[in-house]
Amino acid sequence: MADAIVDEGPWLVMGCHFSIHRRPNNLAIEEMPLHLVVTYWIQAQSIPTNLLTIGNALEIEEKLGTVVQVENPWRKGPRGFLRIRV
Questions:
Q1: Backbone dihedral region of 55: left (phi > 0), alpha (psi from -120 to 50 degrees) or beta?
Q2: DSSP the chain
Q3: What residue segments make up the domains of the chain, in order of their start?
Q4: Is 69 or 77 the better-scoring residue by pLDDT?
Q5: What's the pTM value of the predicted model, to 2 decimals?
């Protein structure tokens, strides 16, 4: 479950952005960089079910910048949106 919390975040908790990152084993807390790269899940809404494909998500991603991950829209059944992590 801990992996899912880290891998599927960042999260919105009580209206606030909450993000967890793994600390590299070779760094002490004091050596951690103060800046972190934060990724966001973007939901592309109002897409007809027959167009919920990874191919269409990849087309949308070209407009968003660097894409980290595209969620398989059918993994949890049709939801009416695509999730793209940038």
A1: alpha
A2: -HHHHHHH--EEETTEEE---PPPTTS-GGGS-S------EEEEES--GGG--HHHHHHHHHHHS---EE--TTTTS--SEEEEE-
A3: 2-85
A4: 69
A5: 0.52
